[in-house]
Design a protein that fits this description.
The chain is mainly α and 94 residues long. The protein has a domain at 39-89. It is built from four helices and no strands. It has helices at residues 11-24, 40-53, 57-64, 68-87. Helix 1 (11-24) packs across helix 2 (40-53). The chain is globular and about 45 Å long.
Length: 94
């Protein structure tokens, strides 16, 4: 996505939010099992899109090339982490 309208955040803001979520979910060792259908960055974009526009999950699934069930799982996993990631932000006071 080239512009911030779909998610409300620009590329750098999404990158920073993904980095914060990676810090929160940092688990040692190699990942096991099946690789996720969407990487963390795409999962964050999907969740932001759903929160901003209240799209049906079936439409979001078509846009991201995954199933509706995957959209539901991603949303339930990422939405709480967004709140935690935003709480890590400390704005600069001039």
């Amino acid at each position: 996505m080239r512009y911030q309208s779909p998610t409300g955040l620009d590329r750098d803001q999404i990158r920073e939010l993904v980095a914060r979520i990676e810090q929160i979910t940092n688990t040692p060792g190699r990942p096991t099992g099946r690789p996720p259908a969407l990487d963390l960055r795409r999962s964050v974009q999907l969740t932001l899109l759903l929160l901003r526009h209240n799209l049906p999950q079936t439409l979001a699934a078509d846009l991201f090339g995954v199933s509706q069930a995957t959209v539901s799982r991603v949303f339930c996993r990422i939405a709480p982490l967004l709140g935690q990631g935003i709480c890590l932000h400390t704005p600069l006071i001039p």
